[in-house]
Specification:
Rossmann fold; 15 helices; glutamyl-tRNA reductase activity (chains A, B); NAD(P)-bd_dom_sf (chains A, B); 4pyrrol_synth_GluRdtase_N (chains A, B); oxidoreductase (chains A, B); about 15% strand; homodimer
């Protein structure tokens, strides 16, 4: 039987979660320690910024051993630890693992970063020989399920955040040969910062970010050679080279006016200007500049709203997939002991008459169970014929 | 499949129920008429003061046929009829039959008069050949269940009403040889009237009832030679002959005072005086009369309260019995078709390997179903060994 002990954002504040975080070394050490217990036949320690979860498999005593050892390992009193725990057992633990692996338990529903984290947690234990048959089946099936949801639905490909939508436009912008030059006006603001990070997650893009020279407390880390920081006042000087210009300041004035832009840039070149500020940063008239396309905040908000609807539908589809795969995993775990017992079972039933067996069943099971057995019998008739 | 169409106190007022009542002749006629329908293989018409219910068994069309014919037979528009109906199908119809037969659907929970009514309704149909295999099984099992509840629990033997409790004291009063003489002071009042009826339900009891001579509108029917009516003012004249005196008037004065009683009755004779009036009718001092026992309303209210607790416990026990028997009935109905198909099933499964069958099952059923099948397989192993 598998169990899961979870300290997550559902019950524990960030302070508690930090206190209960495991480094890679600690994972290895804790797994080793727990595997010494007789009751335990498998341990996986998963630790992300939102949760610390320990999956353990073994006898009924396994979950008790886990709690005591975890409290001891982290120097927390067991009584206190219990306050922050969610405990899952058997099928509910399997269901929880599937939810976590598929991103259904994440803050951003359906995000797929978690899958990599679960996989790596699993690998650490696997390398230590701390994954038993049941755990192996369940984790592998959970990974397969997450992959199927990723492939067969658009759940993880349907962003809702403006920053992601803007970055997607950058990636989609077609430019033959050479790298894309992107200016981010207001790069040190919250939105500008997130957009910049998103853009730089793919190669072939250079960012020129503007900063206000009078801001002496500039703390943004500018990493790598793909980002250049320029003074806000000099922005027009660089604009002609740009394929894309994004503006995300909180100021009341236009950061790009039609007059100045027309003076500075070569007409005819294909350019994408994106204004995600409220109130608007870019003069709507700049659309008159030849080759220039302008998207404003309304455009992205409509996209986000449409994506919300899509995401809800994809979520339904993903749920169907998850239930199906979860059911298959439970079946495998439930069925497994019978494979080993097959010869013994064959002997028991050898030469027994079907009617004798059916009457025994009728006299011993409940009506609900009898209905399932008879339905299965009917099914078998046709499955055999098909097979 | 069995269906039930019910017009009961749950949805229909007494007027509607009366309009939908069936006399014995009508029952016979209606059963005959409905049995002519191809879809119908069984009909039972049950009619009590609280409900008219028609049980029908046959194909899916049977319930539709029943509704149309019932509306036609009673000259009620189908749309109007539908307003007052409860329809039960399959297992819910079986469950309803059991509830009704066991008195769980009655105004007085657990009363057993209904059982006789259901039995006689069934007999009428049985005599007409209008009870098919399924109905026969279900009604017989419902009767057996009701009988088991009556025998194994104290549900129907635990009265809550003061009138029944008073009557029970009369029945329990021991008198060697001869009949019991009971005086009911205030016999024409509601309580006095009910008590008198209850008392007369058993033989060997004579009632002397007092009435006020100034009440010219006396309408109580005095039936049989076991009841004598006397003037209230003459009550003390008769009291010496009495074994039991019950007083249930609504007046403010004592109906029995100690002084007058002491003058009129022979001391030493065993007597039971029961005062169920509020305010009290009998002078508490009469207990001083030799041989006399006095019970007042507090005594009966305590009895009733204790019985309520007993009844609730008995109800739980009765429910357990009903669920058990209901489950057995459903199993028999579900299983029956397979008995006829046994030879065909044997052929289908002849020479099939157990592991082949189990893998087919695992691949086709849900995890919930698989668990039931495997649990049944485990059960069979031990049932065979026991058998």
């Amino acid at each position: 039987m598998m169990y899961c002990m979870s300290v997550s954002h559902k019950k524990a504040s960030v302070n508690i979660r930090e206190r209960f975080a495991f480094s890679e070394e600690e994972k290895v050490e804790f797994v080793e320690r727990l595997m010494k217990k007789e009751a335990v036949t498998g341990v996986v320690v998963l630790c992300t910024c939102n949760r610390s979860e320990i999956y353990v498999s073994g006898t009924k005593q396994a979950i008790g051993e886990l709690q005591r050892e975890a409290a001891d390992f982290k120097g927390i009193r067991l009584e206190e630890l219990l306050k922050y725990l969610n405990i899952y057992s058997g099928e509910s633990a399997i269901g929880h693992l599937f939810k976590v692996a598929c991103g259904f338990d994440s803050m951003v529903l359906g995000e797929d970063e978690i899958l990599g984290q679960v996989k790596s947690a699993y690998e650490i234990s696997k390398d230590q020989g701390a994954v038993d048959y049941e755990m192996n089946v369940l984790f592998q099936r959970a990974f397969a399920c997450a992959k199927r949801i990723k492939t067969d639905t658009n759940l993880s490909r349907t962003p809702l955040s403006i920053a992601t939508l803007v970055a997607n436009e950058v990636f989609r912008f077609e430019k033959e040969g050479g790298e894309k030059n992107v200016m981010v006006i207001g790069m040190t603001g919250k939105m500008g910062n997130t957009i910049t990070k998103n853009i730089l997650s793919k190669p072939g893009i250079h960012v020129t970010g503007t900063v206000r020279s009078h801001k002496s407390d500039l703390t943004m880390e500018v990493k790598g050679d793909r980002v250049k920081v320029v003074d806000y006042r000099d922005r027009y000087q660089y604009m002609d080279e740009m394929d894309i210009v994004i503006s995300a300041t909180s100021g009341p004035h236009y950061t790009v006016t039609c007059e100045e832009l027309s003076e500075q840039v070569t007409p005819g070149k294909r350019r994408l200007f994106m204004d995600v500020a409220v109130p608007v940063d870019m003069d709507p008239k700049i659309e008159e500049v030849e080759g220039l396309t302008l998207y404003n905040i309304d455009y992205f908000e409509t996209l986000s709203k449409n994506n919300t609807e899509i995401k809800l539908k994809e979520l339904d589809r993903a749920n169907v997939i998850m239930k199906e795969d979860l059911d298959g995993a439970i079946k495998e775990v439930v069925f497994h002991p019978y494979i080993r017992r097959m010869e013994e079972l064959k002997k028991t039933f050898a030469g027994k008459r079907l009617d004798t067996l059916l009457f025994e069943i009728r006299d011993h099971v409940s009506s609900e169970e009898l209905k399932v057995v008879l339905k299965t019998l009917d099914g078998l008739e046709s499955w055999i014929k098909e097979g």
